[in-house]
Amino acid sequence: MTFEAGFADAERAAVAAGKVIGALGGAMKQLHRATSEGDIYKMRKSSDRLVTILESTRQEVENARSAWPFSPEAEEQYLKESYAAEVIERAKSESLQIQQRDEGLVVFPSILRILPSDRAVRINKTRVASIRPSAIVKRLKAGQSKKPKAPEAVLELLHRAYRLLVGNEYGKTITLASVYDALTMLPGSKENFDQTDFVRDLFLLDRSGVNRTKSGAVCSLPASTGTKGARNTFFFIAPDGETVTYYGIRFTEVPE
Predict the structure, then answer these.
(1) Between helices 83-93 and 72-81, what is the axis angle to 10°?
(2) Predicted pLDDT at 101
């Protein structure tokens, strides 16, 4: 049983319960009208109908209450072990490029992280409690139409970190891994800005064409023999499914 199937069963049961509750309301109105008019025949007929519908209502409400097939323990286990695969399969069935990278699922330009104990997910920095896979995929697709953050702000942040790291050796290439470490030195900072966030911002900056800081320094993202291995290397999945690799960063002062 998948979450999507479980939610679909629960939805159908809720719809059925809603219909019978609506019928119960109609029977109550008939009884009220019969009593207000003093029609004994209609009053008895409405009362009998009300009892019948009430029994059906109890059954449909119980069906709706028990339609969700997962226990609390099974919910958490599914979120830990199977939910990511279901979201990936659902996304691919709708031609949405999605890959599992580092701490989350990457769907350009969003990052989805699963929070099993909370019965929720986090999309970028927004906690989302509506975790039906079809609803999540719809939300991720909508996120692709949103305007990304300004790359200028990302560039200035990278430049400040770079200056702190290189000191008097301004102009040399350093690893992006060292820049990320510098940006996440404070306790708890990696929880709000993990490596997937970092490489997403790099990608958006790289594809924007923005490479000159306010002070006039020019940024480049050189490759290295280090890109042949996984260590100190970052990967990102572009909208077309291309895997983009990042390794180093360098700023150089350009004479006026």
Answers:
(1) 60
(2) 78
User: Are residues 126 and 116 in contact, defined by beta-carbon separation less than 8 angstroms?
Assistant: no
User: Residue ranges of the alpha helices (H) in 83-234?
Assistant: 83-93, 133-143, 151-166, 176-183, 189-192, 195-208
CB contact at 8 A, 118 and 127? yes
Residue 72: cis peptide before it, omega within 30 degrees of 0: no
pTM of the model: 0.71
Q: What is the pLDDT of residue 153?
A: 94
- The Cα–Cα gap between 194 and 201 comes to 11
Letter for the amino acid at 233? T
CB-count burial class (<10 Å; 0-12, 13-18, 19+) for 234: buried
Neighbours of 91 (CB within 10 A): 21
- Report pLDDT digits (tens) over 125-165: 789 999 999 999 999 998 887 777 789 999 999 999 999 99
- Distance between CA 234 and CA 198 in Å, rounded? 9
HSE (side-chain half, CA atoms, 13 Å) at 29 = 6
Amino acid of residue 210? V
Residue boundaries of the structural domains of the chain: 3-66, 72-143, 151-253
CB atoms within 10 A of CB 142: 10
- ∠ Cα 239 242 244 (to 5°): 105
